[in-house]
Amino acid sequence: MGAKLDVESPEARVEKLKRTREMLGKRRDAFAKTKTYADALEVIRNKLANIDIVSVRCLALGSPSNEFNALYQLAFLVLILDELKIRQVSVYDPAFNDIDVLLFEELGFKIEDKITQKVSKEEDILYYMPHAPVELLEEIITSEKIVVMITNDLRRYIGRWTSQDLYEKHPNVARIGYLTSQIRSEQPSTDDGFEMVASKKKVRKNRRNKLKVVDTNVDYHLDECYFDSCDIAEILGGSDISGEWKDSFSCLAVHVIR
């Protein structure tokens, strides 16, 4: 019987990298054949048809070599890159380990050393941030003035806090939620300053979509932000958790912020 390889040994790392590479390829190929992916791709094509994406920043992915969801999310990113013919990609997450770094290098990705970067305002960058925490989304939207991103559907944060609390904690997330709720609402504001807005929740068995209340009396100081509209389209919703990828893609949406 051969000796057990130490997890820190070069041999063990080579073997783990090989397994991770193979699993990534299998998940990419399997997901590419699904209707779920075809539907998601159609939404992405439609929303980005008039936008010339030159590069991708991938943040908060997690560790593909250690995390089930992160590997599926990476497989989806690889498919998007192939479809959009994008080769300039950077990644950052403190969760990355040596195996992840080697995998990204094989894929031709640049590994960044910090979360925020100086980005060109003359280029449209696609930010890929699946399941990123709202605090990070607020930070990146504010510091880098994002135009296009694939991340959690920001409309889902409406109702988790009061409108005033959401604005005080995460002002740009609140503004985006407010602007999109105005577009989606088909009911006029009532005299009490509140507006009923239809909002999708995660699909759960025997549970209906509910209405949420947006407080139209909150001053969002829209003249102080870099955008005045946001188009959001869900691409992989809660109904997709029945697939073998489980909740890797739940609530993801394309956001175009102008």
Please outline the helices and strands.
Layout: H1 10-32, H2 35-47, E1 53-59, H3 68-84, E2 89-92, H4 98-107, E3 110-111, E4 124-129, H5 134-144, E5 148-152, H6 163-169, H7 171-184, E6 194-199, E7 210-215, E8 230-236, E9 252-257
Structural class: alpha/beta
- Output the radius of gyration: 20 Å
Quickly count the helices.
7
Question: What is the strand tally?
Answer: 9
Main beta sheet: strand number and arrangement? 7 strands, mixed
Oligomeric form of this entry? single chain
CATH topology of the domain at 10-155 and 227-257: Rossmann fold
Distance between the termini: 63 Å
Strand order of the largest sheet: 3-2-1-4-5-9-8
Plain-language structure description:
There is one protein chain. By secondary structure, this protein is α/β, with parallel strands linked by helices. It has a domain at 10-155 and 227-257: Rossmann fold (3-Layer(aba) Sandwich). The protein is built from seven helices and nine strands. It has helices at 10-32, 35-47, 68-84, 98-107, 134-144, 163-169, 171-184; strands at residues 53-59, 89-92, 110-111, 124-129, 148-152, 194-199, 210-215, 230-236, 252-257. A seven-stranded mixed β-sheet has the order 3-2-1-4-5-9-8, sandwiched between helices. Strands 6-7 form a two-stranded antiparallel sheet. Helix 1 packs across helix 3, helix 1 packs across helix 4 and helix 6 (163-169) packs across helix 7. The longest helix is centred in the first third of the chain and has 23 residues, at 10-32. It is globular and about 60 Å long. The termini are far apart. 31% of the residues are buried. It comes from Kuraishia capsulata CBS 1993. This is SRR1-like domain-containing protein.
